[in-house]
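Dear H.,

Thanks for agreeing to be a second pair of eyes. The structure we're designing against is below in token form, covering all 981 positions.
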């Protein structure tokens, strides 16, 4: 390989020479391809440069991929979290060998053994981390991840033990290795690298587990743990070895031994095919044309997991119901340079040939497949033999061998076509070797008028420009819609699942069926476990591979992931703090890679992660401290540059603060979010925000200040709880009781005030008026000792209500008057939130009217009542409006003003029903019923009243009940049912 340090096009020319492709050197130079641009070339570029041969394009692309892996390209040396598969190999009986052999011979054995290990590991894309005598440690998933790292490790393990098995010590003793493999999340970092001056170390339990597994592996065996097995997803044959206890591991661990290959692309899910009707119809049409003797080619394209193979299975199923032959070929990522590998594998599979079978058995089986006599010199079996490792009878050049192979394969295919239509499926041609690619082009060229359909699948990112001819139609698979995805989830669950779980799966899957399945399995299998694993382990490697492909731009993707699914360009730039030129380049790279989708949102350039799972995977790789720092930076930038966002979405800031470990700040933002919701009369949202704040507060050191904050939050929380659950319910009471306990413990006076106020409301709600009135006395005492007019107003507020209910009317009137005096010059708006959730000044006027009525001063009462009604309607505060209208209605009912009551009840009912004010829904119905009765409709009246009473009873609301029951009784009497009254 060329010198990677050599920049400019001369290095590239040398590199081409090494590949035996120096004929393109001039074209590369003319197109300014240097070391910088070389790694970014795609198949189409090579085509444009003038590399017409598919075989040469394949060689070049492989070599370019190899460049990528070469250590010359630095990997960002930041510590990060990763899922890693660790392989441990060990030579069986090494100690004995060392006593038997001369050290120099031993060294030679080790050398051979290590070479064999390194070769197997590297062939499957693993990274040899340590070679210490007979101990070998390898990583799959670092420094570069592959979607199938677990499977790669298992395959490397198999090959490793097999190649060691073929070796002998100088004394003739056969050698054996054993291998242990484990997968888990680790931290890989550069921390200790400098000290040891060698490998970047891996921190986590996974290497330990791999070592322990290796120790229990049988000689010549490969053993792996549960997580690795889960990731292999049935693509290899595994044998269960049961649960084992390991030192240092609390739980027994399930262990499997790798038995070998599983042919035919692994097991497919048996779940029914969802949607894809249009695509299936297209394929059906093509098949129909093919059966008429008009050969067809279709290239099925789509990203990993979109459902290419699943669709093909459906087609094969349909085709198989009529006269047909189906030939299936699978290209493999482990054999991209193995000439005609898919053809050879298909042949072995069809002939029933097992691995390691001796040559004569293979020959017999091949002859049995191709017919008697085919194995004779020059026969078809003889020609195809080299594909499956058999020697031909005659010595021939590779070129001639290829020509003969092609002829034999074409002849076989031609015979099949003459007996019935043939469907040729070639899966994953992005991994095909160049000869297979050539063969496919050849088939399409030579079989134009034969009953043949060739369907190939391919991922879009790695197009070889294969099967690009006009006679091949392209079919791109798009993501499924939400309903179809929901069908897949329901099919897997086999039982109804919660709407919330379903939503979360669909939101994160973005229409990719594989993501849907893995997310669903993850949630279903781990329901009950703590949900720390947001990205399923089975998808993690594939997602990391996509991120690793970004090179240095990966860091920017991680920064963006901290902001959320979506980030504005301004925020991203400010948080990333990279050089502007580089920043722009990397943003474009992320967009170019299809990772981020650009969009415009209210005039601002914004980027959105195409896949939620990619965002989560990028986020998951950040170390906790790093994450916290980035969240803190997001907070800082938003606070400095986007006050509007801070005010509009305090909960967003709260979340970032919490993730940044800025707990106190997070509490304050949650509090602000709750207050904001209260101002918009959004009780449920307010409750949720206050509860978030309280939850975070509980993680802080208990100090007087935290207690004060907690009392404050509990008091704030009590108000919406009263509104939503009703004044008699246990929820607000529990909150107020906890606050009272805290206030008493720290000797707080002023803080106790709103708490006692809330408790008085709860007492009165339950009809415990004497208790409520006693609490009002406590309130008056606190107000007096604090010398505060606001508190005074609210203390009298409580007192006038409860004295009224106890029938102490003159005292109630005194408190109304005293309260109104205290209210002079007091700003009351915020009070509406804290005390009973309504404006005390309007409440005072209502009671003044009520007391006037009971006093017989009709005119005063009516005038005050009407005025207050108008004021209530003008209030922006919904709960104030409801409360005042309700009390006005009572005063008018007592005064027999039917029309006034009807007006007020219409308003009240609408308000109460719309906003869930339970307290008033019942009351409105009883008073509305009374009005109906007075207007001569006793039947409807009784129905209304019954409903109202039932509503209140269901909420346990005693408050006002005697009065309302009295109203009910009077209506029963009116209706001529004195018995029911
Ligand atoms: N239309 C569908 N209905 C139900 N399940 C589907 C559908 N499409 C795909 N699946 C399921 O989603 C998973 C991924 O699909 P599949 O293996 O066909 O993807 P692919 O496009 O071949 O991916 P790759 O590029 O990795 O080979 C499979 O388990 C498959 O059964
Ligand atoms: Mg597939």
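And this is the sequence the design step returned. I haven't edited it by hand at all.
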């Amino acid at each position: 390989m060329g010198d990677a340090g050599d920049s400019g096009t001369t290095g590239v020319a040398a590199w081409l020479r090494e590949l035996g492709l120096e004929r393109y050197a001039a074209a590369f130079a003319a197109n300014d391809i240097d070391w910088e641009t070389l790694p970014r070339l795609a198949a189409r570029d090579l085509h444009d440069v003038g590399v017409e041969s598919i075989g040469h394009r394949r060689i070049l692309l492989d070599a370019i991929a190899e460049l990528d892996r070469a250590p010359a390209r630095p990997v960002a040396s930041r510590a990060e979290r990763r899922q890693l598969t660790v392989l441990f190999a060990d030579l069986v009986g090494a100690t004995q060998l060392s006593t038997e052999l001369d050290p120099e011979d031993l060294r030679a054995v080790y050398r051979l053994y290590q070479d064999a290990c390194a070769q197997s590991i590297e062939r499957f894309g693993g990274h040899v981390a340590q070679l210490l005598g007979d101990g070998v440690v390898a990583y799959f998933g670092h420094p570069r991840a592959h979607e199938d790292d677990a499977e790669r490790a298992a395959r490397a393990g198999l090959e490793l033990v097999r190649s060691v098995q073929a070796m002998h010590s100088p004394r003739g003793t056969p050698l054996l290795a054993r291998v242990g493999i484990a997968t888990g999340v680790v931290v890989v970092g550069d921390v200790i690298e400098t000290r040891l001056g060698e490998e970047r170390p891996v921190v986590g339990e996974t290497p330990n587990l791999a070592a322990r597994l290796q120790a229990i592996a049988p000689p010549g065996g490969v053993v792996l743990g549960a997580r690795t097995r889960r990731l292999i997803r049935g693509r290899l044959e595994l044998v269960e070895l049961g649960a084992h206890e390991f030192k240092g591991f609390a739980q027994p661990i399930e262990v499997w031994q790798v038995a070998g290959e599983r042919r035919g692309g692994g097991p497919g899910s048996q779940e029914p095919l969802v949607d894809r009707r249009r695509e299936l119809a297209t394929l059906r049409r093509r098949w129909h044309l093919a059966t008429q003797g008009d050969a067809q080619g279709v290239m099925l394209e789509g990203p990993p997991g979109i459902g290419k193979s699943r669709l093909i299975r459906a087609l094969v199923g349909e085709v198989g119901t009529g006269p047909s032959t189906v030939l299936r070929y699978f290209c493999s990522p482990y054999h991209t340079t193995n000439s005609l590998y898919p053809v050879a594998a298909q042949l072995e599979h069809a002939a029933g040939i097992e691995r390691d079978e001796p040559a004569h058995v293979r020959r017999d089986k091949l002859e049995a497949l191709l017919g008697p006599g085919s194995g004779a010199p020059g026969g078809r079996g003889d020609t195809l033999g080299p594909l499956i490792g058999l020697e031909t009878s005659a010595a021939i050049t590779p070129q001639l061998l290829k020509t003969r192979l092609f002829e034999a394969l074409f002849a076989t295919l031609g015979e099949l076509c003459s007996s019935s239509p043939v469907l040729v499926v070639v899966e994953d041609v992005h991994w095909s070797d160049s000869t297979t690619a050539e063969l496919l082009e050849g088939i399409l060229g030579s079989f134009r008028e034969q009953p043949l359909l060739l369907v190939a699948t391919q991922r879009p990112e790695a197009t070889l420009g294969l099967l690009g001819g006009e006679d091949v139609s392209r079919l791109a698979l798009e993501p499924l819609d939400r309903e179809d995805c929901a069908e897949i989830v329901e099919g897997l669950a086999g039982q109804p699942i919660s709407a919330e779980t379903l939503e979360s799966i669909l939101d994160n899957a973005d229409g990719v069926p594989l993501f849907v399945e893995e997310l669903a399995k993850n949630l279903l299998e781990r329901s009950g476990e703590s949900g720390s694993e947001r990205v399923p382990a089975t998808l993690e490697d594939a997602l990391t591979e996509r991120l690793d492909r970004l090179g240095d731009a990966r860091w920017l993707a991680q920064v963006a992931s901290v902001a959320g699914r979506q980030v504005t360009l301004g925020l991203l730039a400010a948080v990333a703090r990279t050089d502007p030129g580089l920043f722009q380049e990397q943003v474009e790279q992320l967009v170019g890679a299809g990772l981020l989708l650009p969009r415009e949102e209210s005039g601002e350039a914004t980027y959105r992660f195409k896949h939620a799972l990619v965002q989560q995977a990028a986020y998951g790789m950040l170390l906790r401290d790093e994450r916290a720092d980035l969240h803190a930076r997001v907070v800082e930038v938003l606070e400095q540059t986007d006050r509007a966002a801070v005010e509009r979405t305090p909960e967003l800031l709260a979340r970032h603060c919490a993730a940044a470990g800025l707990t106190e700040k997070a509490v304050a933002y949650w509090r602000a979010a709750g207050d904001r919701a209260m101002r918009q009369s959004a009780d449920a949202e307010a409750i949720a925000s206050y509860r978030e704040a309280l939850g975070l507060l509980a993680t802080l050191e208990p100090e007087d200040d935290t207690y004060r904050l907690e009392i404050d939050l509990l008091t704030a929380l009590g108000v919406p709880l009263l509104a939503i659950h009703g004044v008699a319910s246990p929820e607000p009471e529990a909150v107020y009781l906890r606050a009272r306990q805290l206030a008493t413990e720290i000797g707080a006076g002023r803080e106790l005030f709103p708490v006692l106020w809330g408790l008085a409301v709860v007492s009165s709600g339950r009809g415990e008026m004497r208790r409520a009135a006693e609490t009002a006395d406590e309130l008056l005492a606190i107000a007096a000792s604090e010398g505060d007019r606001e508190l005074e107003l609210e203390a009298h507020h409580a007192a006038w209500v409860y004295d009224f209910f106890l029938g102490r009317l003159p005292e109630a009137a005194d408190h109304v008057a005293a309260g109104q005096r205290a209210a002079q010059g007091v700003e009351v708006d915020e009070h509406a939130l804290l005390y009973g959730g309504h404006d005390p000044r309007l409440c005072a006027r209502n009671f003044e009217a009520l007391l006037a009525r009971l006093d017989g001063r009709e005119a005063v009462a009516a005038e005050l009542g009407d005025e207050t009604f108008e004021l209530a309607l003008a209030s922006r505060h919904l709960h104030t409006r409801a409360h005042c209208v309700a009390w006005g209605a009572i005063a008018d009912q007592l005064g027999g003003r039917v029309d006034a009551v009807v007006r007020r009840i219409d308003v009240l009912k609408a308000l109460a029903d719309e906003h869930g004010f339970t307290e008033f829904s019942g009351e409105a119905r009883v008073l509305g019923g009374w009005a109906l009765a007075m207007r001569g409709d006793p039947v409807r009246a009784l129905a209304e009243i019954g409903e109202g009473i039932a509503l209140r009873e269901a909420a346990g609301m005693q408050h006002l009940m005697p009065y309302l029951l009295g109203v009910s009784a009077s209506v029963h009497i009116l209706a001529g049912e004195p018995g029911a009254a």
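Two observations from my side: The domain at 838-974 is CATH 1.25.40.10 (Serine Threonine Protein Phosphatase 5, Tetratricopeptide repeat). Residues 269, 271, 273-276, 302, 304-310, 459, 488, 513-514, 517 surround adenosine-5'-triphosphate (ligand 1) (CB under 6 Å).

Warmly,
E.
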